[in-house]
Every structure is written in C-alpha cells, then in structure tokens.
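Predicting holo structure, iron/sulfur cluster bound.
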Amino acid sequence: MSTLPSGPEDFRSVLASVQQDGQRKWVGARILWGRWRAWRMALAVPLTAFYCAIPFVSVGGKPALQFDLAARKFYVAGVAFWPQDLSYFVILVLLGIVGTLLTVALLGRVFCGWFCPHNVFLEMVFRPVEHLVLGGPGSPQKTPFWRAALMWLVFAVIAGGLANAGTAIFVGADAFRHHLILDWAGHPYAAVCWVVFFGIILFNFGWFREQTCTIVCPYGRFQTAMLDPHTLTVAYDARRGEPRGHLQHAPAPDEPKLGDCVDCGMCVRVCPTAIDIRNGNQLECIHCAACVDACDMVMGKLGRPKGLVRYAAEVQLAGQKRAIVRPRTILYTVVCCVLVALLVWRLQGRSEVLVAPLRQTAIPVREADPDGRDCVRAALPLSLVSRSDTALRARIVLGDAVQAKIILPQPVVELPPGQRVLATPIVYIPRTMFSGRHLDVDVRILAEDGRLLGSTEVGIRTP
Ligand code: SF4
Ligand code: SF4
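Done. Tokens:
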C-alpha cells in the first residue's frame, strides 16, 4: 500500500518526460477508447476539416482566412483588413484575452484538450496512425527499422497535406494553385513557405510532440495560472481513492482500509504528457480526459462506481458546491459583452476609406469665388487611406455646405488598394454661412457610382 504520489516527489519542478540525467523520456501514450475520447473524436473530425479547408474557402469571392504578409493585408470572413485597421485587431486581442479568462474560469483548459490544432492533429491523427503502423505506442529505440520508415512515410504524407493548408493561409488559395502546383520554380516564396511548414509539422508531430505543450506554449502556462477552486478540471478524487493499493495487497489489521485506486497506473500510461493526475492539478495537464476514460474502464472492470478520476472542481472534491456565477465570471462576461458590442459598432461604421484632416498650413483668406460671391477660401489637407483591396476612383464633396464650392487640383483622386494618398481640396464658403468665426464642414468621399466611401468633419475659421 502506498499513499505517496507514484511519480517523482519533486513532480512540480521536474517534467515527467525528462529523465534524471536530463535526457528526454519518450512518451508513448496508449490509446484507450472511452466516452470522452469518443466525444473528442466527434469534435476532431469537423475541426480537422475546418483547419484544413478554411484557407481554400472564399466568402463573396474573397478568402475566408488569409494572412498576406507581403501585401500587409489580412482577410477574415472575406473582409480585407490593413495595418490601418489596428483598432479592430486591438479589440480582437482584448476579446481573446478576456474570453480566455472567462473560459478558463469556467471550464479550465478546455481549449488545450479539445480545440487546439496541435492536440487535435497529434491525438486524433498522428498518434492513431502511429499505433496502427507500429501496433501500439512506439519508441524510437525499440521500433524495427522498416516499421519506423513506414510510419515516417505516412507522417510525411499527412504533413504534406497540412503544409498545403498552412501555405495557402499565407499565399492565398489561387496563388497556391498557380504558384506551387503549376509553377513552383517561378515562385519560390510559395515553395519556401511549403517546405518550412512541412518541416515544422513533421518535426512537431513526429518527434517534438508533447514538448510543445509542456515547454514551448506560453498559453498553457497562462491558463493553468488562472485556475481557481471553482474551475472545472480533470481531477482525481483522493478522498475516495486513497489510500491506494494493489488488489492483491491485503492491508494489515492495523492499516486503514484501502481506497478505490488500485494503483494500476493506467491513468499515467494513457496520458499524453506522462503525468500522474493523482498528484493533483499540474502545469502539464491539458485536460484531455484520457485518464478519465482509463480509470473509468478500470473501475468498470472492478465493478466499482466510475468517476474516481473525473471532471470536477476542487471545491466539489472537498464536498462543496461549485459556483459558476462568481465575481470574476461576472466581470469577464461584462467585459466580453462590452468588447463584442464595441467591435460590432466599429465594424458597422467601417468605411472603405479612412479620412483624416491634416493640419492646415495655409491661413484661410477672404476671397471672391469664381461666381463673384464674398467667400472664405481655405485649403483642407486630407489623408485618405484605402481599406479596399481594389483600386478606387474617388470624388471629394462637401456634405452640408451646399452653397460652398470645392475645387480640386484633379477631378478624381486615385486610391490604390490599401494605400494612403494626400489630397488638398480648396473650398470657397460664402461668408453668410458663418454665424461666428468658426464653421465645421462635412467632407465626404464618394465613389464614382455615388457610394459613400468615407467622411470627416473639418473646422474652418474666418480670417
Ligand atoms: S492528466 Fe489526464 S487530462 Fe491531464 S493530460 Fe494527462 S491524461 Fe490528459
Ligand atoms: S487508473 Fe484509476 S485505479 Fe488505476 S492508478 Fe489511475 S486512478 Fe488509480
């Protein structure tokens, strides 16, 4: 009988996948089918299809998702975003942070175990393929050469397919077809992109694996630090399981009665990060619930109630009620709602051309306009930034100052996609329009078909 943790006693500071001499300990996690794995697989199928297909999907003729770094242009849901759209990016990042805080406060690391592309591909694609080819969890030292070669060949084919999706996100679906498939030598950018993705994917899923979660990913650490006693986590019920002991071990008369944990180690053998959940919540736990399935299977065979390892909050394990509505979840929800409302409001008012008045360097003067009226003549320097991904031809007009005249050095302003153009229209405003010394005029940018592309207000003072 043992009441001590089964792993190293310094499990909080030593990775379970590292040997005492610092060498890597290969984690050959077993695959066990159970209730939670079935749910994860049901989710993994559409997620895999989504991750692989989204770069090739178009919305209204534009990419659903593309990061065109060369053109400094990003497509999300068919809408082009430029560096000038930084405010949307900031709102989205804030929403991502607060949304993560809310999700973690309620459901722990549900993203890691259920949605993260790394874990979806590793646990639902690469590891099952490895088990199929090798006949079980592999180990680089013990696998026969031909089996290892076959496994790497299959891995390479899958990595190639995933590299297609990764490349298409950066070069676009059309360019991917034309540049990479039809003329890869003529477009080295796409070819280099593909090779880099292929190498990273093969290295990550073939060899690096769980180290991405336990060593590289800062998001996992951040999430673990945000857990609280009311957060739902994968947890071992120590009150029921301890003192643990093997079935054959009959406790001495002076020893306490054994708990339900038979110390079989199945929960450790299926764990993709090789930790022992009986030691409590740990940084490496991605909340994948593989250990829940394993322990449920053992309990089922022993005819004992399932759920010795289960989804539960710390307070529930202590026999208390879990609170979903608590100050932090209320605060996060309110902030999320405010950010969503702000984003929707900003998107609704998003114009195709960002118009900003620049500092007026020329002082307005009194001057007769071409019709001989007594006017104030002012130059209005404007910055026009196109958010469109097609070239625009724009006209500048005055919105409410109908009696005013506007004279442009050129009749239309050419706006290349995503570019900034400076324009300085000259306006003649009748003196009668000024009730005081100041007048705000509404400057509008119209497309050739009369569509409003953008607008701004510019203040003019009488001389
Ligand atoms: S301890 Fe359980 S839930 Fe956590 S990573 Fe290991 S198998 Fe998954
Ligand atoms: S699978 Fe269950 S019974 Fe076996 S060691 Fe883990 S917690 Fe104990």
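DSSP finds 14 helices and 18 strands in the chain.
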